[in-house]
Amino acid sequence: MTLALLQAVGLTKYFGDFAACRGIDLAIRAGERHALLGENGAGKSTLVKMIYGALAPSAGEIRWEGRAVTIDGPKAARALGVGMVHQHFSLFDALTVAENVALALPGAMPRAISGRIRDVSKAYRLEIDPDKRVHELSVGEKQRVEILRCLLQEPRLLIMDEPTSVLTPQEADALFETLERLSAEGVAILYISHRLAEVRALCETATILRGGELVATCDPRAETADSMAALMVGHEVEKLVRRSSTGIRGPVRLKLAGLTSGRLRAIDLDVHGGEVMGIAGVAGEGQNALMAALIGETPTAPEMIEIEGRPMGRASPTERRLAGAAFVPEERIGHAAVTEMALPQNILLSHHRAERLVRGGWIDARKMRSWADKVRADFDVRSGSARPVAGALSGGNLQKFVVGREILRNPGVLVVSQPTWGVDPGAAAVIREALVRLAETGAAVLVISQDLEELFALADRIAVIHDGQLSAPEPVEDLTAERVGLLMAGALEAAA
Amino acid sequence: MITLTRRPGPSIWMSLLSPVIAIALTVASGAIIFTAMGMDAGEALSIYFLSPFGDAFSRSELVVKAVPLALIGAGLAVSFRANVWNIGAAGQYTLGAVAGGWVALSFPEASSPLWLIPYMFAGIAGGMAWAAIPALLKTRFHANEILVSLMLTYVAALLLDWLVRGPWRDPLGFGFPQSRDFAEAFLMPLLAPPDRVHAGVFAALIAGGALAVMMGRTIKGFEIAVIGAAPRAGAFGGFNQTGVTWFVLLVSGGLAGLAGAIEVSATIRQLQPDIAAGYGFTAIIVAFLGRLNPAGAILGALVLAVSYIGGENAQILLKLPKNAAFVFQGLLLFFLLTCDTLIRYRIRFARVA
Questions:
Q1: Confidence class of residue A479 from pLDDT cuts 50, 70 and 90?
Q2: What is the C-alpha to C-alpha distance for residues A418 and A446, in angstroms, rounded to an integer?
Q3: What is the mean pLDDT of residues A246-274?
Q4: CA A363/CA A368 separation, integer angstroms
Q5: What is chain A's mean pLDDT, rounded?
């Protein structure tokens, strides 16, 4: 057997009494494509941070080509040959590609490096113009810059953290080709993802973590997505089955007519009672402006947004809620919830007038608490302490809380952005089922998501947002992932 | 390289203990400073920190000093919770005194104590008007309220100076820069003469209590806290950031103005260039010492009052300069902010590669 390039032996990390990782063994050979799977809070980030030198292990050791090493910082990791592409990009928008890459390479001058960028980008089909400024690039191109930046340091192990979450299917396919080419040249790849289908397509080994411990090392190609999901969650997950459309199509409850605001250009959309409308699109195509206009954070002309037949483009979020609408923005922390406040206060945030939690200016503390208890019980929101602040909940539990908070109001119109973003499969299943149930009661549900798999499973109709424009919604039966992908990339703009 | 990393969960106990630790550190530093100056540290500290409690007169003076500090500090606590940094309470205090003084000087024949009511309302209005300037500039033009409110402090001081040297100067005052004395009706009633404790105590208690209830129990207080903690969540909740900015500046400005009017009426009884507007700055420490809780500001005001009285006693008994009191106030704020920071963050020493 060949010697592992990187080997972790009994790697353990404690935060106080809490073991984020306990006794993890992991071995990656040169050229191997290795997936790291696990729910939120399973210890993936902690493990990777130890390998990348951002956290010091409490116990255990890391061996590089059989030799025990201490990685005391990202710089030391890079010196060994570990490169990492983070989920959130760290690029300077105002600088060119070459300048951004040069910043990461000590002693390099942007002009000297342009040639190397061209060579490497050609070799790995990561086409990019080194002289372009980063703010002109699409999200997929920005990711290429991040990858290029790693490749120029000639890494022997490349860590990719959820790389496809911002890509169209076509861009993702191109990325997989690049990764396969790299691995053929002997670069090992540690691939972190929630998306089991792509792990099965790309990787030869998968390490699955749960609750900070290693539960299985398997060959994903020999497993099914369901069997791996079961290993991650610890029990069988309800499968994402496409619900059979009820065929009920109630009256239009949410209507957008020529909505123009920020990046949005003349968006038209009717969402009927009883249907789930999906809006697909890669990140940053105008979803934020759409959400702000729908919630009422950015006022528009009154007739541009109709809720339950009433023009509400200029109405405040509170008035819209009183009219029966509810909203779940994408960002949980600091937008949908105030992290330093307790859960009852976070109920108050959106329900203060809509659910009469305030009388004559006085907060009805008992009602507020019973709401919080009900959301926690109905949506299985788990926490370490009895009265946690919102920030103490894990991502999945906080998401269940903010979605549950709005669904339990029984709104006539629910607008939700990225309902299962960064949420483990167990919590995602709970959230998706609740959304479908709500639509079945006759509510109009609008889901904005970058997860196509999710939209295909949830939505009755799907429209695609690209560069501030929305394609005409099409019934999901008539759509293929490929067609949506092309719409997402703007390729069908002229035809649509 | 030294870096600060966020602690996973700040301990509630520690954030409540933080003021106590800061006070202890201030006393300890005082001991070191006195020893370095060749004084008997024990004696000096006892004059500074214990003598203010020693006799009835000092205790009443403690309360007299605490009244304006508590009034201003309670308002500032609300403003700071909204993440609106009103640093110019001293100017609003001055304008409160000027507006009240205008009422008092306009009615020299007044005799009914009911005149105190319009007098105090004028003080509130004066402080509010002065705070409305940073509010307008911030909400309309995104001007930084720290700079605007601070700079207006100097404008207010010069305005008062001009008034008492010019139009409002006492014609019988031998040319001294001071106004005529206020009529009897405009003087705060004393609670236990001859001690100077006056009815302004009730104003401070009511303001601190009412604002604490507002912050804890009403939707207005919740709105302020949400906008301060997470402005985007505030927008999501349907709260109006502009409205909150106006509200907290008017509340804190109005209370500072009231403090100015009360202080002038209770202790100085006329307008003059120096009306102790420095309370407006000291009250910033009061607000932090009170954990940005308006009721806590009442306790914070008592602690800071000790440093004023102790400073006066030290001036007399130890021949220490008056500014020594400000050194202690500065140390206290420094230690307080340090403790608060270290409760939320831990220090890491990282090697520079």
A1: confident
A2: 11
A3: 89
A4: 8
A5: 86
A75–B238 C-beta distance less than 8 A = no
> Which residue do the tokens 């993440």 mark?
B83
Of B219, B222, B232, the CB nearest to A334: B232
Cβ contact A363–B236 (<8 Å): no
Q: In the numeric block, which tokens belong to residue B39?
A: 């004084």
Interface of B with A in 60-99 (CB under 8 A): none
* pTM for the structure as a whole: 0.78
pLDDT tens profile B6-27: 776 667 788 788 888 999 999 9
pLDDT value of residue A495:
44
Chain A residues with a Cβ under 8 Å from any Cβ in chain B: 15-16, 72-73, 75-76, 295-297, 316-319, 321, 327, 329, 331, 334-341, 345, 348-350, 352-353, 358, 361-363, 365, 392
pLDDT exceeds 50 at position A86: yes
Q: Indicate if ipTM > 0.90.
A: no
Q: Are B82 and B224 in contact (CB under 8 A)?
A: yes
Cα–Cα distance measured from residue A312 to residue B272, given in angstroms and rounded to the nearest whole number: 56
Q: Burial of B192 by CB count in 10 Å (0-12 exposed, 13-18 middle, 19+ buried)?
A: exposed
**What is the share, in percent, of chain B residues with pLDDT greater than 70?**
98
List of chain A residues whose C-beta atoms are within 8 Å of the C-beta of residue B225: 341
pLDDT in tens, A358-370: 999 999 999 999 9
Residue contact A317–B229, C-beta within 8 A: no
Question: How far apart (Å, rounded) are the C-alpha atoms in residues B275 and B254?
Answer: 17
Q: Which residues of chain B neighbour A339 with C-beta distances below 8 Å?
A: 230
Q: Is B352 on the interface with A (CB under 8 A)?
A: no
Considering only residues A412 and A485, tell me which one the structure prediction assigns the higher pLDDT.
A412
Say which residue the tokens 């300077």 belong to: A92
A18 exposed, middle or buried (CB, 10 Å; 0-12, 13-18, 19+)? exposed
Alpha carbon distance A258, A470 (integer Å): 11
DSSP label of B351? -
Q: What is the mean pLDDT of residues A220-235?
A: 77
Q: 10 Å Cβ neighbour count for A184?
A: 9
Substitution target from A349, A356, A405 for chain B, most B beta carbons within 10 A: A349
State mean pLDDT over A4-20. Answer: 84
State in Å, rounded, how far the first CA of chain B is from the last one. 10
The answer for residues whose C-beta is within 8 angstroms of residue A227's C-beta and 6 or more apart is: none
Cβ <8 Å between B237 and A352: yes
| Whether A331 and B232 lie within 8 Å, measured CB to CB | yes
Residue A337: its chain B contacts at CB < 8 A? Answer: 233
Tell me the pLDDT tens digit for each residue of A133-166: 888 887 778 888 888 888 888 889 999 988 877 6
Q: Which of A331, A345, A392 is facing B9, going by the closest CB pair?
A: A392
- Please name the residue ranges forming H helices in A286-357: 287-295, 317-322, 343-351
Share of chain A above pLDDT 90, in %: 37
Which residue in A has a C-alpha nearest to residue B233's C-alpha? A335
Please tell me which of the candidates B222, B238, B353 has its beta carbon nearest to residue A345: B222
Cβ–Cβ of B353/A339 closer than 8 Å? no
- Evaluate whether A147 touches A94 at the Cβ level (below 8 Å): no
Could you say which residues of chain B have pLDDT below 70? 1, 8-10, 350-353
Q: What pLDDT, in 10s, does the model give residues A103-115?
A: 877 777 777 888 8
How far is CA A165 from each of CA A183, A232, A430, A485, B89, rounded to the nearest angstrom?
21, 19, 21, 14, 50
**CB < 8 Å to A336, chain B:** 233, 236
- Interface contact B229, partner A, CB < 8 A: yes
* pLDDT (0 to 100) of residue A386: 78
